[in-house]
Amino acid sequence: MARLALVDLFAGCGGLTRGFLDINHDASITHTYDVVASVEADRAAAATYAANFGRDHLFHTKIEEWLPRDIPDADVVVGGPPCQGFSNLGKRDPMDGRNRLWREYARTVEKIQPDYFLIENVAAFYRSHEWGLLQSAVEDGPLRNYELQPHVLNAAEFGVPQVRKRAVVVGRHRDRPPLPSLDAVRSDPTARFPSVGDALAELPEYVPPDRIALPQGVYDFAGDLPGAFKTSDLHITRRLEKISRDRIASIPEGGNRLDIPFHLQAPCWRGHTSGSLDVMGRLRKDRPSVTIRTEFVKPEKGRYLHYRQPRPLTHAEAALLQTFPMDYQWCGAKVSIARQIGNAVPVKLARALGALITKAYD
């Protein structure tokens, strides 16, 4: 098998890396991946990455501080620059400094000159000023050797039990062939989307209400951090006030805040019978979940109640809905691990994209 050198920028907890490396276990492919460098500034996310993939190729630093002498040659560059400035749930501030981090990504691509590069972001990226600047960089700027193939993808079409629409931009060096059709890696269009019930089948539904703390453990990475914990260790819930328990108990599968009796409703919900209908929403067992975001432990933020149990999703359940395996290792406090899970590229989506790129080399 031929080996392709891979660089993962804004690597986070490693969703893209895991998906691309999963391809290496497929005996039918002719090209596999070696990760030669990954960059991640967040300490806990970098520790999670190191716990799963090692530290030898990991640069725990801001991408703008990644020195040119450390940037290796590579065939493929991937990354998901922070999306909070573009997100529909955020302020969508055009001056948010995180929006401009794609420029550091572009600087790295210009230095490496890979065959292909891939950017993953929220779908709103295509309505941003930054998308226009990226197009300009390709048309007559430092990335003029590349052509862009932009897509809006639903992760559920690639085996992820979650409706998650994302912008995926593939840049192709003009000396390399275009990528095949995405149909080559999509799931069978006649099959139903994978469901919440499918994804959570390995976990017990019941979680004792007092199981709210992470297990004991310390992981040494740029200072001690809680960890490393397997996904299966994260089947923990949160402490709920009585009024929250009463509200949750009144909501049926597929229901939402409108099912809560009037006397239990928050004052801001009363009289509002439209909009925000995912608030205090309960998932359906036989359907994909909504997009898993960083605050999935808070049902007041969206449709994050277990389809049957009187609680929100656990960290383990959210990780499985992001298609991380049960033995994946996580580092950090509960809030940090939740943020890592919500910000990650689903592993099965990453695997499909990695497989698509390898087909261009066949």
TrEMBL record:
<dbReference type="InterPro" id="IPR018117">
    <property type="entry name" value="C5_DNA_meth_AS"/>
</dbReference>
<dbReference type="GO" id="GO:0003886">
    <property type="term" value="F:DNA (cytosine-5-)-methyltransferase activity"/>
</dbReference>
<protein>
    <recommendedName>
        <fullName>Cytosine-specific methyltransferase</fullName>
        <ecNumber>2.1.1.37</ecNumber>
    </recommendedName>
</protein>
<dbReference type="GO" id="GO:0032259">
    <property type="term" value="P:methylation"/>
</dbReference>
<keyword id="KW-0808">Transferase</keyword>
<dbReference type="InterPro" id="IPR031303">
    <property type="entry name" value="C5_meth_CS"/>
</dbReference>
<keyword id="KW-0680">Restriction system</keyword>
<keyword id="KW-0949">S-adenosyl-L-methionine</keyword>
<keyword id="KW-0489">Methyltransferase</keyword>
<dbReference type="Pfam" id="PF00145">
    <property type="entry name" value="DNA_methylase"/>
</dbReference>
<feature type="active site">
    <location>
        <position position="83"/>
    </location>
</feature>
<dbReference type="InterPro" id="IPR029063">
    <property type="entry name" value="SAM-dependent_MTases_sf"/>
</dbReference>
<dbReference type="InterPro" id="IPR050390">
    <property type="entry name" value="C5-Methyltransferase"/>
</dbReference>
<dbReference type="InterPro" id="IPR001525">
    <property type="entry name" value="C5_MeTfrase"/>
</dbReference>
<comment type="similarity">
    <text>Belongs to the class I-like SAM-binding methyltransferase superfamily. C5-methyltransferase family.</text>
</comment>
